[in-house]
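User: Predict the complex with adenosine-5'-diphosphate.
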Amino acid sequence: MKFGGTSVADGPSLTRVVDIVKSAYQSGNEVAVVVSAQRGVTDQLITMATELAGSPDATGIEPFINSLRIRHGKVLLESAEEYADEVGLLLEDQLCNLESILKAVHNLRELTPRSRDYIITFGERLNSLVVSAVFRQQGLPSTTLDGCEAGIITTQNHGEAMALPESEAKIRNRIIPLLADTVPVIMGFMGCTTTGVVTTLGRSGSDYSAAIIGAAIEADEILIWTDVDGIMTSDPRLIHDARVISTISYLEVMELSYFGAKVMHPRSIEPAMKKDIVVRVKNTFNPSHPGTAIVKSEQRDSRVVKALTYIEKVAMVNICGAQMIGRPGVAKAIFGLLADRDVNVMMISQGSSEANITLVIEESQEHTAREALSVLVNQGMVRQVTTNRDVCAVAVVGSGMAGAKGTGGRIFSALGQGGINVMMITQGSSEVNISFVVRQEDGPKAMRILHDEFRLSEEDNE
Ligand code: ADP
Ligand code: ASP
Ligand code: MG
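Assistant: Here is the predicted structure with adenosine-5'-diphosphate placed in the model:
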């Protein structure tokens, strides 16, 4: 069971978490718990560390440490009074550690990927101590483990590390013996390299932690407890009548999360898929709702489209020139240059004339991409590279689209009727996803039009 930031934000939410875990445990299940940082803490850690590396002013450190002390201490005192002294000391150790490293970052005016990773795990470090104490106060035997102690061994790719295969046996050896008589509380979002250097798994990485652990111990189910009833037909903050999807396939969720649906970490499906473990997304604040089951078999619905997602802050890169026509190696050069500068390409399209290749990347990487690709212009391999920042990408996802005729036609004629100009289109060969780019200001309207066109607010009729 993984509990996200809002589920563990304060005393009252933790009471719900305890009820959920207790009821599973007392009905004879073995339960391992993965927790995130309290909502907002990871963002605060990132901001603080970044500011300290670039500013002569270090006066923010003390009030920041104090705010963390108050925030976590309050929950501890309210919900685990018996353990307040014992766990209070452990929190102080962590805070002292954090304070020293923040001071070091400031003194050196340097934040390396390695020290950044170490710093941003403190949200989970502090919170897991509190959650575990609350479990004990409520009669659930519990211990805490950091990601490394739990056996998550990762690549050295700081900020976006991935679990290595050797994690599996390690996790099994560490976690399974604990399950017999405790509920281990594992700090999400982090792991370590083979030499013990702390790494993080990418933003929202606790979902991935839960999936890695659930797959390694061959759990019957991986439960992602969050603050909505399940995976919905669209981000409910954008489409107010978005509906919860009762069953969805691994592949569909992968497409949704790669395309920005913030409900799950993009890599968190793969470990579960390998072991064919059901991942259930449920609401901590409405546990009787069945939630969404993410399963292997594709659930075909009479509706071909299952969900929509929308990514802002992207940029479109156009590479063009007649020189590219029939010339092998242009694509290799483009992707090689971008990969060398760590620019992640989200969408690719090339017309049959070959005189134009269009890519979609994160907006924050636009400058780097332009710089990297200017080499090709200087070499005469392409005529020009232009970028467009004022755009967003929309993905239409559903396994029912594979082989269904006319879905693309429906999407683009609905958009056309709504007066929306489509700037780029891609469809993968799996046909589970059709994505397109529109002007930033047209994004929400495009989502609304397609949500209505495919009747996504209506009940499932599987
Ligand atoms: P947690 O702290 O539990 O990890 P997150 O904030 O990371 O929670 O993810 C849950 C949020 O994801 C929801 O509150 C919702 O606003 C957002 N979200 C975006 N797209 C979707 C979607 N398709 N279905 C459900 N929630 C979504
Ligand atoms: N606390 C981390 C983040 O905010 C990981 C997570 O919440 O899953 O990204
Ligand atoms: Mg999350």
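The CA atoms of residues 304 and 401 lie 5 Å apart.
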